[in-house]
Specification:
13 helices; about 325 residues; Rossmann fold; Tyrosyl-Transfer RNA Synthetase; 2 domains; binds adenosine monophosphate; mainly alpha; two-stranded parallel sheet
Length: about 325
């Protein structure tokens, strides 16, 4: 099989990724980089659609990059960069904005949800044009596949519409990208409300496992996770959502099958089981957290890595931008 071009991005909206981000997205990025030509981006420009203190945005952006590297996104195996380091993203976004219908953009459900929540006076235009910047992110790299969560599917559909429209109007310029919807099987739920997804915006602090939190804090959260009143360690999302979620977490980290874990913990109590999940979690994430903290402390080294990535990214993105600019009639 030939190597495919992959592009994905994550917004630096928090100072720590949580275990759902890792198991649901970043872990698969790490797998893709081996067999493919992967471009991974920290979408710092997208993060500007929500008002954030400048110092906070800056440190979250660098922390996101550090965590990606610590989790195994390898700057030698893929191209890792910050969106704002590659000017072509903003430049191509304008082209995309001029190709998108107002009505078409108004139908984006994420925009509708987010803008309804904050009201039209407090919604910035950047939130409306966000999907066109995302289309630029993808099309600049001629990506074959875009691994994303289900919530981003509509934005990929828009990107495909824009690619098709541009290609048919101006001649083939962009590769048609395919969404690669990340497996829902690794969906991680809130520890305190195990029937809803673990999420930075919806979960309480006790319900979420941040990889940058101290091992002690996370072990404690796992040990106080909500479980049912029964005694059996058995995977049953309906009757035992809490235990099932913990089984998923253990299995995803340890690589052991759920069936195997059910056998190991047959006849044992919830306390023993939670202790084992906490141990697996701490053993796995402690060195990762240390590595990320180390990179955050060596900011210059981290920035060097990112500038290196941006250089590689700019070559690909710059060529696509030039071609698109001249196709639409901008005199070069
Ligand atoms: P977010 O910043 O919340 O949009 O998350 C970024 C990506 O992480 C999503 O597109 C998902 O692929 C993944 N993700 C987030 N939360 C979870 C979760 N609770 N379980 C599994 N994957 C998740
Ligand atoms: N909008 C995506 C999210 O919130 C992040 C993102 C920005 C992205 N640009 C992208 C994802 C390009 C895939 C491809 O999760």
């Amino acid at each position: 099989m030939t190597r495919k071009r992959i592009l994905s991005a994550i917004q630096p909206t928090n100072s720590s990724l949580h275990i759902g981000n890792y198991l649901g997205a970043v872990k698969q990025w790490v797998e893709f980089q081996n067999e493919n030509d992967a471009f991974y981006c920290v979408a710092d420009l997208h993060a500007l659609t929500v008002e954030t203190d400048p110092e906070v945005l800056r440190s979250r952006t660098l922390a996101a990059a550090a965590q990606l590297i610590a989790l195994g996104v390898h700057p030698e195996k893929c191209t890792l960069f910050l969106q704002s380091h590659v000017a072509a993203h903003s430049q191509m976004a304008w082209i995309m904005e001029c190709m998108t219908g107002f009505g078409e953009a108004s139908r984006m459900t994420q925009f509708k949800d987010k803008s309804q929540k904050s009201g039209s006076e407090r919604t910035v235009v950047g939130l409306f044009t966000y999907p066109m910047l995302m289309a630029a992110d993808i099309l600049l790299y001629q990506a074959d596949y875009v691994p994303v969560g289900e919530d981003q599917r509509q934005h990929i559909e828009l990107t495909r519409d824009l690619a098709g429209r541009f290609n048919s109007r101006f001649g083939k310029t962009f590769q048609m990208p395919e969404p690669y919807i990340l497996k829902a099987s690794s969906k991680i739920n809130d520890l305190q409300d195990p029937t809803s997804k673990m999420s930075k915006s919806a979960s309480s602090n006790q319900g979420i496992l941040d990889i940058m939190d101290s091992p002690q804090v996370n072990a404690k959260k796992i040990k106080s996770a909500m479980t049912d009143t029964g005694r059996e360690i058995r995977f049953d999302e309906k009757e035992k959502p809490g235990i099932s979620n913990l089984l998923t977490i253990h299995s995803s980290i340890s690589g052991r099958s759920i069936a195997d874990l059910e056998i190991e913990f047959a006849g044992k109590g919830y306390g023993d089981f939670k202790g084992a999940v906490a141990e697996v979690f701490v053993d796995y994430f402690s060195p990762i957290r240390e590595r990320a903290l180390d990179l955050i402390n060596k900011e210059n080294e981290l920035l060097d890595i990112l500038h290196e990535g941006a250089k590689k990214a700019s070559e690909v993105a710059g060529a696509t931008l030039e071609s698109a600019y001249s196709k639409v009639g901008l005199a070069r």
